Amino acid sequence: MSTYDPTTNTLHPRTDATVTIRVIKNFEYRTTRNLLLKHLNLEEMTVGQLIERCKEEVKKTPAFKAYRTTEFDTLKLYTQAHGAKTTNLIINLDHPDWILEDHDQILADVRIGEQRIENETELSLFDREAYEKFLLNPETRWD
Known about the structure:
The N and C termini lie far apart (about 55 Å). The chain has a 4-stranded mixed sheet. The mean pLDDT is about 90. By secondary structure, the chain is of the alpha+beta class.
C-alpha cells in the first residue's frame, strides 16, 4: 500500500486549473482583493489573455467596483501551492524577476527558476507604474 498523498496542485491537469489572482489596488494601503479563477486551460491561455480575463472579471463583479479605476497591466508570481510564502502581505518584493514580462507566453510554459504556473498558483495583478513607485519607498500606511 502506498503512503503517497498527492498535493492539491497536482490533482488537476493544466487544462483545468484553479488560480488565485491577488488584485492589488494600492500598495501603500495594502488594498487587495482575491479573484478566484477556475477551469483555466494553462496550456492555451497566454499571460496577456489572463490579464484581460481578470480585467473583465473586475468590470463585472460588484465586489470589485472600487478597483475599476486602476490600470491593471502586470502579473507577478506570488506563490505556488505548498511553496514558501513571502513575509510581505501585499506583494513579494524579494523577487523582482517573478514578473511575467512576456504577455504572449503560454502560462504553462512560464518558468521562473523552479517556479511555474500550475493549479493553485497565486499571482498578483497590479498597475506596474504604482509598483515601481512603491519599490522606491516600500512603506505601508494606516491613515
